[in-house]
Structures are given as C-alpha cells and as structure tokens.
C-alpha cells in the first residue's frame, strides 16, 4: 500500500477544534482577527493559511499554532511504520472506501499461534473474508471499536461466515443481526492465541468507543488521528479525557486509527495540535 495521507488537514482540524470548543465562525473571527470570510475559505481549503493566520486561529480555538502550521504546510507527517511493530503480533491492514472516504479494517494475528481477530469491518465483508482465507490465519473474534456504519457494516455477514463472537464495549449498542457477543468492561481482556488484548473505554467520538491494546499496539477507532482528533460527536471533553487515558500506555505504542496513517503516542505528544 502506498503512503497513507493524513486523515485531517488544516481546514478539518480548525473546524473540529471550533466545534469542540463550541465557538462560531464569528466568535473565532473576533478573537483571531481573521475575517469570517477568510475563516470559511480556510476551513473549505479555498486557500492555504499564512503563518500569522494559523497562529491566530490556533490561539482562538485552543490549538498549538506551530504544530497546526506544520500540518498546513505539509512539513510534518508521522514516521513511517516499521516492518516489525511488535514481536508477538502481525497486523494486516485492509482499506475500503465509504462515501468516497477511506476507512480501515485490521486483522490482528498472534505470530506464534496464527490465531487472529478482525478489528472493525470497514463496511466490506467480502474483502475481510477474502483476506482471512488467503492469509491462512485462524479467526477467533471480531473486535469493534465503535458502532458507526463505516466500521461495523457487514459484521453479521463476517460473523456468520467465521462463527466467532463479536466483542465490544459494554457502553456500545449491539449491531443489528449479530449472534454470540461479549460486552467488555474497562480493562477487561480477551485472549487471541498468546495475546492478551485489553479493552479500554475511550468515549468521545461516540459514547461506546473502545480501544483494543496488546503489547506495543493499540487499535483506537476514531478517537484520534495522526495530527488530529476524531469528530467529538459524543463529547469533546470526553475525547480529551480518553486521549489522556490512552497516553498512559508507553509512548512507543503504535496507534492504528480507523482513518489515516498509523502513528505513535510519542509522535502525537510531540506534534498533534490538539495535545500541546
């Protein structure tokens, strides 16, 4: 797969920050000195920002200006993913397009036993099943990071073909049509081969969002993206609290989001405009 572009760029980031802080265009214009017309143009990518504009807007919406401008000028991207992320596990990434936008399914594989878990379905059951068949791994579960359609559509079809349980947070509504399933509490673990996978409640993008972590790997759904955050549909404050909780993991932990490239906790601590 070619290099994966950032999910969010300047316009998306300031729009999410503005929404999260509950600020209108007029309020940000008044605080930043950038006109409403210019703000609208910048959020819609009609033109790039100047450094002064980026810094002024960042201050008005609670972002780090230098980090924001680095993304606006494409002078930062997360380090390339190493060939070996974790000694005990392999990761297979599958990309689908939903409404024209890329979304990822992951297959977590225990290297020792070749047992595996599907993480989200990326709304393409056939692609998931074909990848499992060609890889020769032994599926044991389907993990769901949250209940949005681009992540769970087709899960009933995948489960029907694999005859494995679906696993998700106790705060998430069960997807329609699924059979056997397990609702996990915060910190509960589920074993895949020799891998103990821990589920962390990380609400914000939605109430039932979860992270699945094992070794140096964490599947985070739409909690954060490289250089940005998921849209805080449930609560911006909850999203920020969940990020703080996630960042209790080691800084070398590689984060696999539902959209955009993988990154690490250390990279995001150093470069994400929301997290200065």
Oligomer classification = single chain
Q: What is the H/E string? A: HHHHHEEEHEHHEEEEEEEEHEEH
**The CATH C-level class name of the largest domain:** Alpha Beta
State the share of residues found in helices, binned by percent. Answer: 25-40%
Which stretches are low in confidence, meaning pLDDT under 50 for 5 or more residues running?
Answer: none
Main-sheet strand order equals 1-2-3-4-5-6
CATH superfamily of the largest domain: Ribonuclease Z/Hydroxyacylglutathione hydrolase-like
* End-to-end CA span: 31 Å
- The average pLDDT value, as a whole number, equals 96
Radius of gyration: 19 Å
Q: Number of folding domains?
A: 2
Largest sheet features: 6 strands, mixed
CATH topology of the largest domain: Metallo-beta-lactamase, Chain A
The share of residues in extended strands comes to 25-35%
- Provide the CATH architecture of the largest domain: 4-Layer Sandwich
Number of discrete helical segments: 10
- Estimated structural class: alpha/beta
Q: In summary, what is this structure?
A:
With 276 residues, the protein is of the alpha/beta class. The chain has helices at residues 10-20, 25-32, 36-43, 51-61, 65-72, 125-135, 149-152, 155-162, 236-246, 265-271, and strands spanning 89-98, 101-110, 115-119, 138-143, 166-169, 181-184, 189-192, 195-201, 210-214, 217-221, 224-225, 228-229, 254-257, 263-264.
């Amino acid at each position: 797969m070619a290099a994966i572009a950032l999910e969010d760029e300047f316009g998306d980031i300031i729009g999410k920050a503005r929404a999260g802080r509950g600020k209108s265009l007029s309020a940000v214009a008044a605080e930043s000195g950038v006109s409403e017309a210019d703000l609208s143009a910048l959020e819609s990518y009609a033109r790039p920002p100047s450094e002064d504009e980026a810094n002024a807007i960042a201050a008005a919406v609670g972002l780090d200006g230098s980090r924001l401008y680095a993304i606006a000028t494409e002078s930062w991207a997360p380090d390339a993913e190493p060939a070996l992320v974790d000694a005990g596990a392999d990761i297979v990434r599958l990309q689908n397009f939903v409404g024209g936008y890329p979304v990822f399914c992951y297959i977590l594989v225990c290297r020792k036993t070749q047992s595996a878990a599907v993480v989200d379905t990326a709304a393409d059951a056939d692609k998931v099943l074909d990848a499992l068949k060609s890889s020769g791994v032994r599926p044991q579960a389907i993990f769901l990071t949250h209940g949005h359609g681009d992540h769970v559509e087709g899960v009933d079809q995948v489960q029907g073909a694999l005859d494995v349980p679906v696993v998700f947070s106790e705060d998430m509504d069960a997807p329609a049509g699924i059979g056997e399933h397990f609702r996990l509490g915060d910190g509960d673990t589920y074993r895949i081969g020799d891998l103990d996978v821990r589920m962390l409640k990380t609400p914000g993008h939605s109430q039932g969002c979860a992270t699945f972590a094992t070794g140096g790997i964490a599947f985070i759904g739409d909690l954060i993206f490289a250089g940005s955050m998921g849209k805080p549909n449930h609560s911006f404050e909850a999203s920020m609290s969940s990020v703080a909780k996630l960042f209790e993991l080691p800084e070398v932990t590689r984060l696999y989001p539902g959209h955009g490239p993988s990154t690490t906790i250390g990279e995001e601590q150093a470069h994400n405009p929301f997290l200065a």
